[in-house]
Protein backbone atom coordinates (compact mmCIF):
# COMPACT_ATOMS: atom_id res chain seq x y z
CA UNK A 1 0.00 0.00 0.00
CA UNK A 2 1.43 3.36 -1.03
CA UNK A 3 1.29 6.22 1.44
CA UNK A 4 -0.86 9.24 0.52
CA UNK A 5 0.32 12.73 1.39
CA UNK A 6 -2.08 15.07 3.17
CA UNK A 7 -1.11 18.25 1.37
CA UNK A 8 -1.96 21.13 3.72
CA UNK A 9 -1.02 23.74 1.11
CA UNK A 10 -3.38 22.33 -1.52
CA UNK A 11 -6.27 21.80 0.90
CA UNK A 12 -5.70 25.32 2.28
CA UNK A 13 -5.89 26.78 -1.20
CA UNK A 14 -9.27 25.12 -1.81
CA UNK A 15 -10.64 26.43 1.49
CA UNK A 16 -9.18 29.91 0.95
CA UNK A 17 -10.82 30.11 -2.51
CA UNK A 18 -14.14 29.34 -0.84
CA UNK A 19 -13.47 32.07 1.76
CA UNK A 20 -12.82 34.62 -1.05
CA UNK A 21 -16.34 33.97 -2.36
CA UNK A 22 -17.88 34.18 1.11
CA UNK A 23 -16.16 37.55 1.67
CA UNK A 24 -17.59 38.87 -1.62
CA UNK A 25 -21.09 37.78 -0.54
CA UNK A 26 -20.71 39.36 2.89
CA UNK A 27 -19.64 42.65 1.30
CA UNK A 28 -22.43 42.58 -1.29
CA UNK A 29 -25.22 41.61 1.13
CA UNK A 30 -24.22 43.41 4.34
CA UNK A 31 -21.47 45.88 3.34
CA UNK A 32 -19.16 44.14 5.79
CA UNK A 33 -15.48 43.28 5.32
CA UNK A 34 -14.14 40.77 7.88
CA UNK A 35 -11.41 42.45 9.94
CA UNK A 36 -8.61 40.79 11.91
CA UNK A 37 -6.18 42.46 14.33
CA UNK A 38 -2.99 40.59 15.15
CA UNK A 39 -0.94 41.77 18.12
CA UNK A 40 2.72 40.83 18.33
CA UNK A 41 4.85 41.70 21.35
CA UNK A 42 8.63 41.38 21.27
CA UNK A 43 11.16 40.18 18.75
CA UNK A 44 10.73 36.40 18.51
CA UNK A 45 11.88 35.72 14.93
CA UNK A 46 9.48 32.83 14.22
CA UNK A 47 6.52 34.85 15.53
CA UNK A 48 7.37 37.67 13.13
CA UNK A 49 7.32 35.15 10.25
CA UNK A 50 3.95 33.70 11.32
CA UNK A 51 2.40 37.16 11.75
CA UNK A 52 3.55 38.22 8.27
CA UNK A 53 2.02 35.02 6.89
CA UNK A 54 -1.27 35.84 8.64
CA UNK A 55 -1.26 39.42 7.30
CA UNK A 56 -0.56 38.22 3.74
CA UNK A 57 -3.26 35.52 3.94
CA UNK A 58 -5.84 38.07 5.18
CA UNK A 59 -5.11 40.47 2.34
CA UNK A 60 -5.30 37.67 -0.24
CA UNK A 61 -8.83 36.64 0.78
CA UNK A 62 -10.02 40.26 0.97
CA UNK A 63 -10.07 40.78 4.77
CA UNK A 64 -9.24 44.04 6.47
CA UNK A 65 -6.04 43.34 8.39
CA UNK A 66 -4.23 45.26 11.14
CA UNK A 67 -0.95 44.24 12.74
CA UNK A 68 0.29 45.82 15.97
CA UNK A 69 4.01 45.21 16.55
CA UNK A 70 4.87 46.22 20.10
CA UNK A 71 8.31 46.33 21.75
CA UNK A 72 9.24 43.61 24.26
CA UNK A 73 9.18 46.23 27.05
CA UNK A 74 5.39 46.66 26.57
CA UNK A 75 3.61 46.33 29.92
CA UNK A 76 0.69 44.03 30.57
CA UNK A 77 -1.52 47.08 31.16
CA UNK A 78 -0.56 48.62 27.81
CA UNK A 79 -1.49 45.36 26.11
CA UNK A 80 -4.81 45.20 27.97
CA UNK A 81 -5.54 48.80 26.89
CA UNK A 82 -4.94 47.90 23.24
CA UNK A 83 -7.24 44.85 23.53
CA UNK A 84 -9.93 47.07 25.10
CA UNK A 85 -9.69 49.40 22.12
CA UNK A 86 -9.91 46.50 19.64
CA UNK A 87 -12.81 44.89 21.53
CA UNK A 88 -14.76 48.12 20.88
CA UNK A 89 -13.68 48.59 17.26
CA UNK A 90 -16.55 47.75 14.87
CA UNK A 91 -14.19 47.19 11.91
CA UNK A 92 -12.48 44.39 13.84
CA UNK A 93 -14.24 41.01 14.07
CA UNK A 94 -11.27 38.93 15.23
CA UNK A 95 -8.40 39.63 17.64
CA UNK A 96 -5.34 37.48 18.11
CA UNK A 97 -2.31 37.89 20.36
CA UNK A 98 0.64 35.98 18.92
CA UNK A 99 2.22 33.47 21.30
CA UNK A 100 4.63 33.11 22.98
CA UNK A 101 4.46 36.41 24.90
CA UNK A 102 7.55 37.85 26.60
CA UNK A 103 8.19 36.84 30.21
CA UNK A 104 6.21 38.90 32.72
CA UNK A 105 3.03 39.00 30.64
CA UNK A 106 0.30 36.60 31.75
CA UNK A 107 -0.88 34.83 28.59
CA UNK A 108 -4.13 33.61 30.18
CA UNK A 109 -5.04 37.04 31.53
CA UNK A 110 -4.41 38.58 28.10
CA UNK A 111 -6.40 35.94 26.20
CA UNK A 112 -9.28 36.21 28.64
CA UNK A 113 -9.46 39.95 28.02
CA UNK A 114 -10.34 39.45 24.36
CA UNK A 115 -14.11 39.54 23.83
CA UNK A 116 -15.17 35.87 23.44
CA UNK A 117 -17.06 36.82 20.23
CA UNK A 118 -13.77 38.12 18.72
CA UNK A 119 -11.56 35.34 20.12
CA UNK A 120 -10.63 33.75 16.77
CA UNK A 121 -7.79 31.78 18.39
CA UNK A 122 -10.33 30.08 20.68
CA UNK A 123 -8.08 30.57 23.71
CA UNK A 124 -10.54 32.50 25.93
CA UNK A 125 -11.79 30.42 28.88
CA UNK A 126 -15.37 30.80 27.60
CA UNK A 127 -14.48 29.20 24.25
CA UNK A 128 -12.28 26.56 25.89
CA UNK A 129 -15.16 25.69 28.24
CA UNK A 130 -17.64 25.48 25.35
CA UNK A 131 -15.29 23.17 23.44
CA UNK A 132 -15.01 20.97 26.53
CA UNK A 133 -18.82 20.87 26.82
CA UNK A 134 -19.26 20.08 23.12
CA UNK A 135 -20.99 23.42 22.46
CA UNK A 136 -20.53 25.67 19.41
CA UNK A 137 -17.37 27.78 19.92
CA UNK A 138 -14.23 29.13 18.29
CA UNK A 139 -11.93 26.12 17.96
CA UNK A 140 -8.17 26.77 18.20
CA UNK A 141 -6.70 26.95 14.70
CA UNK A 142 -4.13 24.14 14.72
CA UNK A 143 -6.46 21.48 16.23
CA UNK A 144 -9.24 22.59 13.86
CA UNK A 145 -6.82 22.24 10.93
CA UNK A 146 -5.70 18.80 12.12
CA UNK A 147 -9.30 17.55 12.29
CA UNK A 148 -9.97 18.93 8.81
CA UNK A 149 -6.92 17.05 7.47
CA UNK A 150 -8.04 13.79 9.11
CA UNK A 151 -11.54 14.21 7.66
CA UNK A 152 -10.03 14.79 4.19
CA UNK A 153 -8.69 11.21 4.25
CA UNK A 154 -12.33 10.08 3.99
CA UNK A 155 -11.73 7.53 6.77
CA UNK A 156 -14.36 7.09 9.47
CA UNK A 157 -12.92 8.32 12.80
CA UNK A 158 -15.53 6.50 14.92
CA UNK A 159 -14.02 3.76 17.06
CA UNK A 160 -10.47 4.44 15.87
CA UNK A 161 -7.69 4.60 18.44
CA UNK A 162 -6.17 8.08 18.29
CA UNK A 163 -2.91 8.68 20.14
CA UNK A 164 -2.10 12.34 20.73
CA UNK A 165 1.48 13.03 21.76
CA UNK A 166 1.60 16.40 23.54
CA UNK A 167 -0.68 18.04 26.07
CA UNK A 168 -0.38 21.76 25.30
CA UNK A 169 -3.40 24.05 25.61
CA UNK A 170 -2.88 25.17 21.98
CA UNK A 171 -2.75 21.74 20.30
CA UNK A 172 -2.66 18.52 22.37
CA UNK A 173 -5.59 19.03 24.74
CA UNK A 174 -8.04 20.60 22.23
CA UNK A 175 -7.24 18.08 19.48
CA UNK A 176 -7.90 15.23 21.94
CA UNK A 177 -11.31 16.72 22.76
CA UNK A 178 -12.15 17.17 19.07
CA UNK A 179 -11.24 13.55 18.32
CA UNK A 180 -13.31 12.39 21.28
CA UNK A 181 -16.25 14.32 19.86
CA UNK A 182 -15.76 12.35 16.61
CA UNK A 183 -16.07 9.14 18.65
CA UNK A 184 -12.41 8.17 18.53
CA UNK A 185 -10.90 6.34 21.51
CA UNK A 186 -8.29 8.85 22.60
CA UNK A 187 -5.02 8.36 24.48
CA UNK A 188 -2.94 11.41 25.42
CA UNK A 189 0.80 10.84 25.82
CA UNK A 190 3.32 13.41 27.05
CA UNK A 191 6.89 13.90 28.19
CA UNK A 192 6.38 11.75 31.32
CA UNK A 193 4.68 8.86 29.47
CA UNK A 194 6.58 5.60 29.91
CA UNK A 195 6.95 3.28 26.92
CA UNK A 196 5.63 5.80 24.40
CA UNK A 197 6.28 3.32 21.59
CA UNK A 198 3.74 0.87 23.08
CA UNK A 199 0.96 3.45 22.75
CA UNK A 200 1.94 4.68 19.30
CA UNK A 201 2.14 1.10 17.99
CA UNK A 202 -1.58 0.65 18.70
CA UNK A 203 -2.70 3.93 17.10
CA UNK A 204 -4.92 4.11 14.02
CA UNK A 205 -4.44 7.88 14.14
CA UNK A 206 -1.23 9.49 15.43
CA UNK A 207 -1.16 13.22 16.21
CA UNK A 208 2.34 14.36 17.17
CA UNK A 209 2.52 17.81 18.77
CA UNK A 210 5.51 17.96 21.09
CA UNK A 211 8.15 19.89 19.17
CA UNK A 212 10.81 17.20 19.61
CA UNK A 213 12.36 16.53 16.17
CA UNK A 214 11.70 12.98 14.94
CA UNK A 215 10.64 11.67 18.35
CA UNK A 216 8.16 9.36 16.63
CA UNK A 217 10.14 6.73 14.78
CA UNK A 218 8.92 4.92 11.69
CA UNK A 219 9.05 1.56 13.47
CA UNK A 220 6.50 2.80 16.04
CA UNK A 221 3.83 3.35 13.38
CA UNK A 222 1.12 0.72 12.88
CA UNK A 223 0.57 -0.35 9.26
CA UNK A 224 -2.15 1.77 7.69
CA UNK A 225 -2.18 4.49 10.38
CA UNK A 226 -3.00 8.13 9.66
CA UNK A 227 -0.04 10.21 10.81
CA UNK A 228 -0.41 13.94 11.55
CA UNK A 229 2.72 15.87 12.41
CA UNK A 230 2.14 19.24 14.09
CA UNK A 231 5.74 19.66 15.24
CA UNK A 232 8.07 22.17 13.64
CA UNK A 233 11.60 22.79 14.82
CA UNK A 234 14.54 24.24 12.91
CA UNK A 235 17.46 21.78 12.80
CA UNK A 236 20.52 22.93 10.83
CA UNK A 237 18.35 25.60 9.22
CA UNK A 238 15.81 22.99 8.02
CA UNK A 239 12.27 22.52 9.37
CA UNK A 240 11.84 19.13 11.01
CA UNK A 241 8.65 17.59 12.39
CA UNK A 242 8.02 15.30 15.36
CA UNK A 243 7.80 12.27 13.06
CA UNK A 244 10.57 10.48 11.19
CA UNK A 245 8.87 11.17 7.85
CA UNK A 246 10.68 8.81 5.44
CA UNK A 247 10.41 5.76 7.69
CA UNK A 248 6.87 6.51 8.90
CA UNK A 249 5.77 6.89 5.24
CA UNK A 250 6.61 3.22 4.69
CA UNK A 251 3.94 2.21 7.24
CA UNK A 252 1.28 4.95 7.18
CA UNK A 253 -1.73 5.11 4.86
CA UNK A 254 -1.77 8.93 5.09
CA UNK A 255 0.86 11.33 6.39
CA UNK A 256 1.38 15.09 6.62
CA UNK A 257 4.67 16.60 5.48
CA UNK A 258 6.65 19.24 7.40
CA UNK A 259 6.60 21.89 6.06
CA UNK A 260 3.37 22.02 4.05
CA UNK A 261 1.07 19.94 6.25
CA UNK A 262 -0.47 21.23 9.46
CA UNK A 263 1.23 24.70 9.32
CA UNK A 264 -0.71 26.16 6.36
CA UNK A 265 -3.96 24.74 7.81
CA UNK A 266 -3.40 26.73 11.02
CA UNK A 267 -3.58 30.00 9.09
CA UNK A 268 -6.48 28.82 6.94
CA UNK A 269 -8.50 27.95 10.04
CA UNK A 270 -7.73 31.41 11.42
CA UNK A 271 -9.29 32.86 8.25
CA UNK A 272 -12.32 30.57 8.72
CA UNK A 273 -12.72 31.64 12.34
CA UNK A 274 -12.46 35.33 11.41
CA UNK A 275 -15.09 34.89 8.70
CA UNK A 276 -17.32 33.10 11.22
CA UNK A 277 -16.84 35.97 13.72
CA UNK A 278 -17.72 38.57 11.08
CA UNK A 279 -20.85 36.66 10.04
CA UNK A 280 -21.97 36.25 13.66
CA UNK A 281 -21.41 39.93 14.39
CA UNK A 282 -23.58 41.04 11.46
CA UNK A 283 -26.54 38.87 12.51
N1 LIG B 1 -1.88 33.23 18.97
C1 LIG B 1 -1.32 32.13 18.45
N2 LIG B 1 -0.01 31.92 18.61
C2 LIG B 1 0.55 30.79 18.07
C3 LIG B 1 -0.23 29.87 17.34
C4 LIG B 1 -1.62 30.12 17.23
O1 LIG B 1 -2.39 29.31 16.63
N3 LIG B 1 -2.12 31.26 17.77
N4 LIG B 1 0.37 28.79 16.70
C5 LIG B 1 1.82 28.72 16.58
C6 LIG B 1 2.43 29.44 15.41
N5 LIG B 1 1.62 29.59 14.18
C7 LIG B 1 0.61 30.48 14.18
O2 LIG B 1 0.54 31.42 14.89
C8 LIG B 1 2.02 28.95 12.96
C9 LIG B 1 3.04 28.05 12.90
C10 LIG B 1 3.45 27.50 11.67
C11 LIG B 1 2.81 27.87 10.49
C12 LIG B 1 3.24 27.39 9.16
O3 LIG B 1 2.56 27.60 8.18
N6 LIG B 1 4.39 26.74 9.06
C13 LIG B 1 4.91 26.34 7.79
C14 LIG B 1 6.40 26.59 7.75
C15 LIG B 1 6.72 28.04 7.88
C16 LIG B 1 8.21 28.32 7.92
O4 LIG B 1 8.83 28.22 6.88
O5 LIG B 1 8.72 28.66 8.99
C17 LIG B 1 4.62 24.86 7.54
O6 LIG B 1 4.53 24.09 8.51
O7 LIG B 1 4.51 24.50 6.38
C18 LIG B 1 1.77 28.77 10.57
C19 LIG B 1 1.38 29.30 11.78
C20 LIG B 1 2.45 29.31 17.84
N7 LIG B 1 1.87 30.56 18.21
TrEMBL record:
Binding residues annotated for NADP(+), in chain numbering: 166-168, 232
UniProt record similarity statement: Belongs to the tetrahydrofolate dehydrogenase/cyclohydrolase family.
Function: Catalyzes the oxidation of 5,10-methylenetetrahydrofolate to 5,10-methenyltetrahydrofolate and then the hydrolysis of 5,10-methenyltetrahydrofolate to 10-formyltetrahydrofolate.
Protein name: Bifunctional protein FolD
Amino-acid biosynthesis in keyword set: yes
Signal sequence coordinates: none
Pathway: One-carbon metabolism; tetrahydrofolate interconversion
GO molecular function terms listed in the Swiss-Prot or TrEMBL record: methenyltetrahydrofolate cyclohydrolase activity; methylenetetrahydrofolate dehydrogenase (NADP+) activity
Sequence ranges assigned to domain Tetrahydrofolate dehydrogenase/cyclohydrolase NAD(P)-binding in this UniProt record: 140-281
Species, as recorded: Crassaminicella indica
